[in-house]
């Protein structure tokens, strides 16, 4: 199935590069582009893309505010934030607001398509190693006031659900989760969907943040 993508970045050259890479690979349709956050929100509502690639620092409306508004839409698309910095302070807030992950602008072209597919189907976070570092840093800065709340939420889980959450916290893919849990990938998807619904989380990235906030050890 073709993945519909909206590009939101104030640099035309960046949008051109992303469009060129995605269209060359095939299986993607860039349905629109926007040069600022406000235009991106309007385009997301009108064009109904599957994935929005969102720059953070833009005029009129920054990418963080635009991400929050897009994720508040009925049946919102997945949003991945674009950044040139591994630890951009704005990326922390975007992840907490529900962005599926982030994509470094210097990501090799062949990895961009795979990353966008991962966001579209919800099976993986972006740039797993860097995302894991980002989450750990994010949690360290905010852990103290949120630890008690995270522990309360985790306490409602069954042993199996806690195990799945712990593995999500260490950035495991569905295939890796299936191997660890001795089940099929289809069963893993069911586990993850139920876990996200039970905890009221938007995606696996938020689950990973919760796991770190609760202090769950890596599997």
Layout of helices and strands:
Layout: E1 3-8, H1 12-25, E2 28-34, H2 37-47, E3 51-55, H3 63-71, E4 78-83, H4 89-97, E5 101-104, H5 109-121, H6 128-154, H7 159-169, H8 174-181, H9 185-199, H10 204-213
Parallel strand pairs: 1-2, 1-3, 3-4, 4-5
Describe the model.
The protein has 219 residues and is α/β, with parallel strands linked by helices. It has 2 domains: 3-121, 3-Layer(aba) Sandwich (Rossmann fold), CATH 3.40.50; 144-213, Arc Repressor Mutant, subunit A (Orthogonal Bundle), CATH 1.10.10. It has 10 helices and 5 strands; from the N terminus they run βαβαβαβαβαααααα. It has helices spanning 12-25, 37-47, 63-71, 89-97, 109-121, 128-154, 159-169, 174-181, 185-199, 204-213; strands at residues 3-8, 28-34, 51-55, 78-83, 101-104. α3 links the parallel β3 (51-55) and β4 (78-83). The relative contact order is 0.11. The model has no long low-confidence stretch (mean pLDDT 84).
Q: Unreliable segments (pLDDT under 50, ≥5 consecutive)?
A: none
Order of H and E elements: EHEHEHEHEHHHHHH
Oligomerization status of the protein chains: single chain
What is the spatial order of strands in the main beta sheet?
2-1-3-4-5
Radius of gyration: 17 Å
Mean pLDDT: 84
Q: Any guess at the CATH architecture of the largest domain? A: 3-Layer(aba) Sandwich
- Quickly name the level 1 CATH class of the largest domain: Alpha Beta
Q: What is the CATH superfamily of the largest domain?
A: Response regulator
CATH topology of the largest domain: Rossmann fold
**Total domain count:** 2
- Share of helix among residues? 55-70%
> Helical region count?
10
Total strand count, please? 5
